Fold:
Amino acid sequence: MAEIILTLKHSLKVPLDASIISPDNFAGKSINEISSLKLWRGNKQITLGEVFDIKGEAGSNANETVITINGDLSKARRIGKGMSNGKIVINGSAGLYLGEDIRGGVITVNGDVGSWAGVGAKGGLIEIMGNAGDFLASSYRGARSGMEGGMIIVHGNAANEVGGWMKNGTIKIMGNAGIFVGANMQGGSILVSNDCGVRAGAGMRGGRIVILGYIPSILPSFRIEEIRASVKVNGDKISGPFYLFNGDFAEGGKGNLFINVTKNPHLKRYEQYIP
Structure:
């Protein structure tokens, strides 16, 4: 595969719309053509070459193109927007809307990401080695269409409202997650490997949420069904035991909420209600 290396010339003082940075847009172009691509820095349109030192070569198509970006990109938004193939590696943190509308390919971030990462995702893989901000793979405000496919892995913690209005795909949080995980979820799977905030699954109509750590409480609109020895997430078997709750019945939902029994002794009182 051919590789293009972008190295930030100076630290970003104002937001940068970096949606042009994707294998789809770089494929088949020369270094000069890539350097001349336009983007917005604040309210001023500039060229990519004004922001980055650019080396290497692009592949003839997106599948053969790797983009490596070096520097603190926490003010750079929409990297990898709509990408269909190829790979992006960010050696640093990334800003808002990372991988917006991603359809395929791989984005790896060796740092943290801002809010709304993976919004509108329909495929591909986003792997975040650090922490993720709010609204990971969630729907935009006012919309009712969250993640539709692909996989997102966060090796650190995720903030609030992971997977809002999610329809399909898999989200794995290896650390902790905030409140409202899987709010209004309709399908797909969310795994939280450590602790989770309150109101998990609020309004969910389908899909599954698996919490391996501690959760303070379960919404009263969920009903306990049984205790399961294990559960599968994206084909991987995870040993329990788990409390299985169904809901959210306030929305006529049929979602499944799996809660680790050992880490949540305060939920033992629900066992008397198992059918």
Remarks:
- Helices lie at 23-26, 31-35, 48-51.
- DSSP finds three helices and 17 strands in the chain.
- The first strand starts at residue 2 and ends at 8.
- The CA atoms of residues 68 and 89 lie 5 Å apart.
